[in-house]
Amino acid sequence: MTYVQVVLNGILLGGFYLLMAQGLNLVFGVMGIVNLAHGAFIVLGGLGVYSLYGVGVNPFLGLVIVMVAGAALGAVIQWAVIERIHGTARQHELLTLMATFGLSYILINIGQQAWGSDYRTIPFLQSAVTVGPFRFSLSLLVGVALAAAITLGIAGWLTRTRSGKSLRAQAQSPLGAGACGINPRRLRLVGFSVGAAVAAAAGMLLVMTQPIAPQAATNFTIVAFVVIALGGLGDYKGAALGAVLVGVVQTVSGYQLGAVVQAAAPYLMLILVMLFRPAGLLSRKAS
Amino acid sequence: MIDDTGTTAGDRGRHRSLGAVLARGMRPRHTGGRLPSARSDGTQGLVLVVLVAAFLAWGLLGSLSTNQLAIDIAMFVALAYGFNIISGFTGYISFGQVVFFGFGAFATALLVIHLDVPWFLAAVLGGLGAAVVAVPIGAVMLRLQGIYFALGMFGLAYVVSLLLSQWEFTGGSTGLVVPGVIAQKPVLLSVTGVAVLAFAVNAFMARSPFGLRAMAVRDDEQVAEAVGVATTRVKVMAFVLSALMPALVGGMVAYNRGFIDTSTVFNPAIDLQVIVLVLAGGIGTLWGPLIGAVLLTLISDQLATALPDYQLALFGVLIVLVTIFLPGGVVSLVNRWGGLRREIVRGTADLPTEAELERRLAAAHTPRANDRADDPDLLVCTDVGVDFGGVRALRSVDFTVRRGQTVFIIGANGAGKTTLFNAIAGAVPPSKGTIVFDGRPVHGVPAHQLARRGLARTFQIPRPFASMTVWENVYVAALGGRHRRQAQEQAAWVVQVLGLEEIRFAASDTLAVGHRRMVELARALALGPSLILLDEVMAGMSEDELEVVRDAIRRMPSFGVDAVAGIEHVIKAIVDLADEIVVMDRGSTIISGEPTEILRHPEVIRAYLGTGVGLGAGTAVAGDVTP
User: How far is B13 from chain A (nearest CA, A)?
Assistant: First the structure.
């Protein structure tokens, strides 16, 4: 029974991971950029909610505030940095990696100066809920519900609205999208900014359930990357499978083999999956 | 993915922001300069000796803190050059080379503590150990591409660090005390030695056949494989060299510091700093890492004393600024005045005459094994099918090329012509059927081995190695399995036959389409193949260029090319060349035969011209058919 409980917790954790990965996936889908500063957005969002909670702001209101702030920060970064990087396709890939790598250190350093290097969490929705024979913490359940709501919201936006469809068009063929009168520059701005806002939201959910600190940002980037790499970069449905898998593997390995293996698990999964299914778990085996 | 970002990058170039204007002015010139460099090795060597002597005089004669700063500078120079080998010249960006730094540090510490090995010897042993360990790691990790390799290495360093921090033998989370006396001057000398060694390896990379092969991998790995470069071996060798440097330095630094733990020697910030140094100086260049490492280590030393809390953020700002304003590094600035370009590989300054080369090549030409030469069929494809997911690109193709034959395949777009070539050259695995080349099946044989066995191909869209000159492109292909001197003669011959003498030192990414196709053909010919697969080499060529290519195809048999198979749309250019024309349609071969006979065939006329056109003489029809 404990074992089933562990697996269920892993699945719920996967819901969190999915939200963490959403923004990264969106940015990759629209711009072909792996944003290595993604984890920093998550951490800053979480710590923002932490500070707001400290001055008496309800975390749900805090969520809205950090999402807006994250969107603004993302827009500024896209406008001031990413948009200004030029070069051939290959150079561009390398240079954006480097630039976002650099950005992550700037944001982590700023975070450390503002909040210090201590791990922080907020005691919110701490009670436990009993469902049949299983017990879950309320914060985890609420977090997963929120993650699901945001994920569905993004999916709805991408499939139903004009701007969402343009974004998918841009992701699939920038040239074709341009020919259809879609302004690629504005779309990139929207994509990056929404990606940052979603990352900040994921930070809020994280800080409710576990302690976070600025220096953990790189870990979150890696976990988010592993999730989307498992599903196939840019594949929205694959990411859901990847998220649940990482969540379950992490909780189960942590339960059975201890904290070290738990920390190492995402990295090992990344290396193994990339070696054997380089196009993602759901990819059909072709050429 | 590359295509997508390529277009977006292009879109961005049009926006007129300050950054765009600056970046355009500073866009890195390709390292293959347009003119041969006039600098001599003697001068460069002298510059290096003077630099090292001045550096050591400053470092050794100064105060203790100067000693320490000098060690830091030498360390980062060595690390930067180590990184440049795999990430600059070979194109595999790694975010985890620090794993070898830590390996060297722990190996040295453990050897000193448990076996009482002298520190210098221990560091060398640690370095060699890392080089050995790098072979299997490289063989596995280098199968990953781009971001996956970068983050995979990052993950590897993280996992190793995590495991060592749990192991009592390596000091666990408390670390290890390395016994010894404070010996900064010997350490400075040895770290400088490693830096010079690392520089030497980079200098070797910039001009040797090995370096050219590595750059070919960087520019286009699939094409490198197709021109006979054993890509995996080249990558692993580069990886081993770039693991050696940080491991040597790590060992020396461990002794210098007297105390190590996992969080300091596996610190990803070391990698970050190295990447910044190399990027700021100029990645993939010979002098960039040196300039970047010296300049930025001095700057960061000042920053550390002035603003200790913001050191990381300031480094982050530096990276961002470099990527926006100076994407080619300091070296690209100097290069605008021709200062520090890569010295291109030139071969002989004056090309020998064609006749002389042909005489020499004929003398060196070893006849192929006679046992198979009797077999008239060079290439036999039987019932070949290729599926892409659910799409059937090839249904069932039977295709034979006999020795001495020139065969051309024609057919509409999407008929499966290029797919057939891909299957023959080992780039696409067939889902059914067999392909036998020169008596042996091609199934499961790596493309570079097929190329060396005598199967050459050109690509439909020309893919020259962008950072190399025309000569280097041809020379890399000629090197496949040949002695260097012989390869030069082979390349020189090809360059003359195809009339590329004038542009042989031009950067290949600046060429016009016709010239690009010519380079494509030149590489294939330089392999000295027995069968050459030409994928639309004549498309988009001028009349003059067409004549040069047709002439080259006619002369191929006299220089070891046993057979030619081509895909072509320019029908008037092939009627008199072809011994046989094969028509493909929707994944199958429909008819084959003599050119005149094929072009008179009602089925072909229908497919090419639609029905209702008079069935005139074959040659007349052929003359008109130039879609």
Answer: 7
Q: Where are the domains of chain A?
A: 9-217
Chain A closest CA to B99's CA: distance in Å?
14
Q: Are B30 and B509 in contact (CB under 8 A)?
A: yes
Q: What is the pLDDT of residues B412-464, one digit of tens each?
A: 877 888 888 888 888 888 888 889 888 888 888 888 888 888 888 888 888 88
Pair B254, B152: CB distance under 8 Å: no
Let me know: does B294 contact B73? Beta carbons within 8 Å: yes
d(CA A15, CA A245) in angstroms, rounded, equals 10
Q: Do B93 and A104 touch (CB under 8 A)?
A: no
Tell me whether B172 touches chain A (CB under 8 Å): no
Q: How far apart are CA B4 and CA B7, in angstroms?
A: 5
Residue B556 identity (one-letter amino acid): M
Which residue type is seen at A14?
Answer: G
Q: Report the complex ipTM.
A: 0.85
Q: Which of B4, B30, B296, B419 to mutate to test the interface with A (most CBs of A within 10 A)?
A: B4
Joined together, the tokens standing for residue B9 give: 């990058």
One DSSP character per residue, chain A reads: -HHHHHHHHHHHHHHHHHHHHHHHHHHHHHH----TTHHHHHHHHHHHHHHHHHTT--HHHHHHHHHHHHHHHHHHHHHHTGGG----HHHHHHHHHHHHHHHHHHHHHHHHHHH-SS-B----S--EEEETTEEEEHHHHHHHHHHHHHHHHHHHHHHHSHHHHHHHHHHH-HHHHHHTT--HHHHHHHHHHHHHHHHHHHHHHHHHHS-B-GGGHHHHHHHHHHHHHHH-TT-HHHHHHHHHHHHHHHHHHHHHH-HHHHHHHHHHHHHHHHHH-TT-TT-----
Question: Residue A1 has what pLDDT?
Answer: 60
Tokens of B551: 């002439």
CA B194 → CA A25, B190, B252, B253, B257, distances in Å? 42, 6, 10, 12, 18
Structure tokens at B618: 């074959």
Q: What is the DSSP letter of B557?
A: G
Angstrom distance (rounded) from CA A200 to CA A64: 9
Residue B203 CA, distance from chain mean position: 16
Cα separation, A63 vs B348, in Å, equals 69
Pseudo-torsion of CA B345, B350, B354, B359, nearest 10°?
-80
Classified as helix, coil or strand, B612 is coil
Give the DSSP letter of residue B366: P
Q: Give pLDDT, residue A79.
A: 92
Domains and CATH numbers, chain B: 2-335 (1.10.3470), 355-624 (3.40.50.300)
DSSP B62: S
For the entire predicted model, the pTM comes to: 0.83
CB A39 within 8 A of CB A220: yes
